[in-house]
């Protein structure tokens, strides 16, 4: 059958060619895809497309050097599989995947996850990605200053990870990283070196930092955060927009009060949606509000929406939402246990 080469097919074909070419020069650890004969013919191209999922490379690693090479030499569509065990070091990649063919790093056995262990909770990152379109899945991260950091990494998905024993922040979407997703994960025991900077998830950067602060449309869903996350569980910074936080569970034990960290979530950006989350204060007297809004930069900290959240605050004085000067939010169907203060500042219920 004669097959028309649509732009999508041409892209797929060129990616496959690149993958096959790359395999020819790659170390033996790469499992090269079988080369189709007559690959230039349209029909063969169509055949490759049908096999595309199986033709992309799988890179199996059980050593630190293999993982470092796999990250550095990755091609779109690569699936980097880690055998069970501990990989000690700091790992990074600047390679881009594509929307159709992201680069995946994951445990070979999701029930026996590989552990990326940094060198010290005082410095370095377990995994730093600066390319677009990655999938980071079913892995554990510990013993570094930060667990996972995305710098200018767009459209990257982090799923099924556990991050713990980290000196500062657990997961950081930074420097223009937009449309990132963190889902179905567990973050605990962060800020072991610096309590005030021990956020579970950090979206964007503080005013005055040298990073691109435009980190938009981040999704954080189904993430369990705490205990012993010493700063805010999620800090949504000024000049970020469209962050969605849903179906998360906050265990407030260990929030420290250092650097004003006295809530589950801080929102300093715009257009955030915080919905259907559950928080537990757990008798931690440091926690003064479930959610706080702050204006760090004029025009930011507004048009944020909170709905369907349930917060268990032990007593009546802590607010569900505390919108400080210059900020603004809408709210509906939030539940507080026991009854007590709900909203402070410019919060419109609907
Ligand atoms: Ca903070
Ligand atoms: Ca605070």
UniProtKB/TrEMBL annotation:
Question: Could you tell me the keywords of this UniProt record?
Answer: Signal
Task: List the PROSITE patterns.
Answer: TAT
Q: Where do the Right handed beta helix domain residues begin and end?
A: 129-310
Q: Which residues form the signal peptide?
A: 1-31
- The name this protein carries in UniProt is Right-handed parallel beta-helix repeat-containing protein
